[in-house]
Amino acid sequence: MADPKGFLTTPRRLPPRRPVDERVRDWNEVQAPGALLPIINAQADRCMDCGIPFCHEGCPLGNLIPEWNDLVSRDDWLRASERLHATNNFPEFTGRLCPAPCESACVLAINQPAVTIKNVEVAIADRAWESGYVTPKPPERLSGRTVAVIGSGPAGLAAAQQLTRAGHTVAVYERDDRVGGLLRYGIPEFKMEKRQLDRRLGQMRAEGTKFRSGVDVGTDLDAAELRARYDALVIAVGARAWRELPVPGRELAGIHQAMEYLPMANRVREGDYARPPITAEGKHVVIIGGGDTGADCLGTVLRQGAASVTQLDIHPRPGDERADGEPWPTYPKIYRLSAAHEEAMELAASPEADVDARVFSATTVRFEGTAPDAQRPHGGVRALRLIGARADGQPGPDAERVLPADLVLLALGFRGPERDSGLFGQLGLEFDERGAVARDASFATGADGVFVAGDAGRGQSLIVWAIAEGRSAAAAVDRYLAGSTTLPAPVGPADRPMTA
Fold it and tell me: Which residues belong to any copy of the 4Fe-4S ferredoxin-type domain (predicted)?
């Protein structure tokens, strides 16, 4: 490490975000442009170069964090980029979207604020692109074998890039009209501008990966026929079967799943709509769900000009510090403010408005609606009734509370892959007890030559786990096709995040 006392002399410092009143008027990323570079060398210098770097364990990719921290502190951006890309295909994605379990596992975090690993990562990635360090890496020779990847989210893209670089001819099939999966249509532009995705896809195309968008395998194309055309198949369709809220009034118009709402906002940015078919403009909005998807909805609703917005979380408000049952180096459930929550609080009329904008320990009892008409045969939602929830999620003894609601967004998480797709039946695949596609220790399903990577086999998880799974599944496919592999396999199908 460049400065052995850096963690003692330099406090943790985060780059400033753009002012709230400015950023809610556009869809650009919330971080102030260029804000990282003046501070990032000193922040990287805080890395202790621990004897046992637990940040490696916190990151399923096994990122070489102390190494590239040291290189950044010395201004050696080229070598830092090489070390970062040695374990991570898409650091510009994880540096923006990952919740950074590596920081929770940082040894410094035992009794001090952790190293800003995530910010160092994204600074390296952005500097690498700006300096021309990121170039296509096509294979020296082709293997003569072919692989189809179904799904173009982070797991599918990682698997495709690894297999292409190993010399196989790879085609990625995506049911949406554009490549990227939820990176394209699920993640709002203010969290990651789509130019980040497009330039990485350009690199992959230059390396030889083929993309087939607008093809729904299982519907437009028989999956068994596709398997017969390729030497191997990788299923990376994610876990997009959303959870429902079966309460009275659910049938009312104006109640939508988050993944019905968010893609339309992203399609406006792509130029498909002048105005989204589902918009929060001028409406009283209630978001049900306190996770990242709910926060994505919150930031989008604010930018569309909602009259009011309330986010409901069934769980109690977490504490500000680690609980005794969540010791270092596990990823703790603590109270966190995303950029969207920060925006909601600042735009609110009073300091107490966070209680109204974000309500914890709340469970929805029923929806109330307007009378049916020709446009809305079941009527439209006009209010939501909620009651306090106990720690187990069951309704508590409190009196009911009524919230006005012209638009309700359900962000309740996902149950697994969408089983109504013909994909699984056509290949004869089975599901495990968690609702994910069943697979063995080598990511292989019961169908010969068919592998599963990412949330489709793991269940709803983080982007960093999806990329790690894509890399590991690629190694398994390469071994299946060639008899051996030199591709890295950072995780196994049964690996899970650290827990107490």
Answer: 36-69
